[in-house]
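Friendly challenge for the regulars: who can give me the structure tokens for this chain first? No prize, just bragging rights.
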Amino acid sequence: MKNELIDLVAWSHFFLSEVLENGDAALDLTAGGGRDTLFLARQVGVAGQVFSFDIQAEAIERTSRLLANTNIEYSRYNNHEGELSRGNGVFLIHASHDRIKDFIPGKVKVVIANLGYLPGGDKNLTTRQETTLAALRQAMAITEAGGRIAVVVYVGHPGGEEEERTVAGFFQDLGETEWKVLKLEPWNRKKPPVLWLAEKW
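First reply, four minutes later:
Bragging rights claimed.
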């Protein structure tokens, strides 16, 4: 992994790439600028599926442009549309990530999320602990055995510390007979982000 040691997004990609293969299904809870969605799309290939959620239209637009610039085809859905087709490809879903069950028809191999605000966007628009917790619970239910969930939590914005405590509680409460859980964080920084990683047995 040729990235900065404390780049937790790069670490999340590394850990997910160990289990995510061509033809798998993957879920991005926060499309953001599209970095995670692009990574997932490249991992699963044209035979796989990527479901990418974001409540902000700007995030869906950014992700669309990134995919288009890298010649990856995608389909877009909005709040008012329901369960997606079982076809392959990248599905960009303009809806809150706590609506997973309304859109995704089956299981996924991995789940990724970067919580907080859209980089370069309105810092007052952030993920919220209530919808994040609901999304994680739904994601846990559709993750395949052997699959992984990776969540990077940023705490340096209003509500960030509260959200991190909620996320920490979620992962700490996962049963140890069904889940392996890892926490990774930079140690010599003030209010560093945290990577939570869980693998389903």
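The first helix runs from residue 8 to 17. The chain has a mean pLDDT of 93. Your move, everyone else.
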